[in-house]
Amino acid sequence: MQAQQQTALIIGCGIAGPALALALQRVGISAAIYEAQETIDDSKGVFLGITPNGLHVLSQFISLDELAADHTSGNIRFYNAKNKWIGTIDTAYQQKKFGAATVQVKRAALNKALRVAALQKGILLHTGKKLAAINQTNQKVTASFTDGSVAEADLLFGCDGIHSATRKIIFPDAAPMKYTDLLSGGGYSRFDNNLPADAIHMTFGKKAFFAWAVSNRNELWWFNNIASEKEPGRSEISSAEMEALKNKLLQLHAGDPYPVEQCIRSAHHIELYPVYEIPFLQQWYTGRVCLLGDAAHATSPHIGQGASLALEDVVVLSNCLRDNAGVTNAFQQFQQKRKERVELIVKQARKIGDVKAVPNRVQRFFRDLLLRVFVKKEIKKMDWVYAYKADQV
Ligand SMILES: Cc1cc2nc3c(=O)[nH]c(=O)nc-3n(C[C@H](O)[C@H](O)[C@H](O)COP(=O)(O)OP(=O)(O)OC[C@H]3O[C@@H](n4cnc5c(N)ncnc54)[C@H](O)[C@@H]3O)c2cc1C
Questions:
Q1: Residue 390 carries which DSSP code?
Q2: Which of the listed residues 20, 22, 35, 168 should we mutate to test ligand 1's pocket, taking the one with most ligand atoms within 8 A of CB?
Q3: 107 ligand 1 Cβ < 6 A
Q4: By mean pLDDT, which of 10-19, 40-49, 143-152, 349-358 is the weakest?
Q5: Whole-model pTM above 0.90?
Q6: How confident is the model at residue 352 (pLDDT cuts 50, 70, 90)?
Q7: How far is the CA of 324 from the centre of ligand 1 (A)?
Q8: Residues near 209 by beta carbon (within 8 Å), at least 6 away in sequence
């Protein structure tokens, strides 16, 4: 008699969710995705970097050429507060060494590409399904949603991001996430320019950090970090008026070099969100439920690894399910293969965040002296991150 196909509920259709559905399908597990948003907004979010380790996974599910139809370079040039060049990360070597080179893409475009790939493979996506409760027995797991509906399967995966309801439900006593006293802003602008499109330019400015790049479609993509001891509420951010926000950013970056002011003034899209850290969880799973991506180990954005780590998780987890008899063995092996690596990367991101935080004059003097050394050291430290091949661990 043929064994019944295993089934899974995936909570969240961000980056990890649809990629996981595709990876599970490859190993014979049938998954359906449950997403809180009623309609997925393809204009939300700004951009993110995908490094070779993430691209290695992504190329198994979507066309990287299609994704690169709208992108900025992954090369990075660093400048100090006096606008002096202090270092470059040139990503050309990555193509040779790792088979792919870092690229920056719009988060919404990446989400859409994965979502469409999943739908094309017949994976069901249920929207307007906000997870409210989980119940599990030895045999099954049931998810209840705020609209009153329920769904049942053999396994449940929390791919519901940094504010994960799955995490709060299965680990109610886990330490809550911490606001890091930093806001991350970002946006898109258009203005006449002859700026080079070969790198993202990052300035450790007087009052705040600012980065800009020109896309292949001649759009300016930028982000900054703003020190703010007060943690803004989520509604406060979403209601922030564009003009008020621009004025605030212009004040913060007054005196910063061209084209910072032009990026802010001519922005047609701006977002601002608080940067959080999640204290490390002891365990990422319980029973038939497992967390992955930001839900398990959100990292601050300073190292550009959030999406790549989520993509790595997807392949490692699905392969563990393929190779192990029993759910507990599979989840145990997944965590054992992933936790140490992920936590090292999260710690590295925190260190970079500390350098970006706003310093006083004396601190800034020493920071600028040490930045060149810091940048060189950090560049060398990244190769072990990029070399990772999720399907070979
Ligand atoms: C709208 C949005 C915009 C973003 N923009 C950026 C950006 O500009 N730059 C950047 O670096 N990172 C951004 N991120 C975060 C980035 O996508 C993640 O850090 C990373 O890619 C890891 O992906 P993930 O799938 O683990 O989480 P996410 O990509 O955050 O996906 C989580 C998904 O779960 C859904 N969800 C949340 N709660 C529930 C619930 N209770 N029930 C059901 N579904 C739920 C969310 O709506 C979301 O679709 C954004 C995330 C979101 C949700």
A1: G
A2: 35
A3: yes
A4: 349-358
A5: yes
A6: low
A7: 29
A8: 202, 203, 224, 225, 356
CA 78–ligand 1 middle distance (angstroms)? 28
Which residues, 6 or more positions from 196, have their beta carbon under 8 angstroms from its beta carbon? 214
Beta strand 131-136 pairing with 141-145: antiparallel
At 207, list the tokens: 């009052």
Among protein residues, the one with the nearest Cα to ligand 1's atom 37 is 160
My answer on whether omega of the bond before 359 falls inside 30° of 0, hence cis, is no
Nearest-atom number in ligand 1 for the CA of 304 is 11
Q: How far is CA 293 from CA 10, 157, 210, in A?
A: 12, 10, 27
**pLDDT tens per residue, range 112-138:** 999 999 999 999 999 999 999 999 999
| Alpha carbon 111 to chain centroid, angstroms | 11
Other Cβ atoms less than 10 A from the Cβ of 333: the count is 17
Q: Are 357 and 227 in contact (CB under 8 A)?
A: yes
Q: If you ran DSSP here, which 8-state letter would residue 6 be given? A: P
pLDDT at 209: 85
- Of 15, 51, 277, 308, the one to substitute when testing ligand 1's pocket (max ligand atoms within 8 A of C-beta) is 15
pLDDT per position as a tens digit, 193-215: 999 999 999 888 778 889 999 99
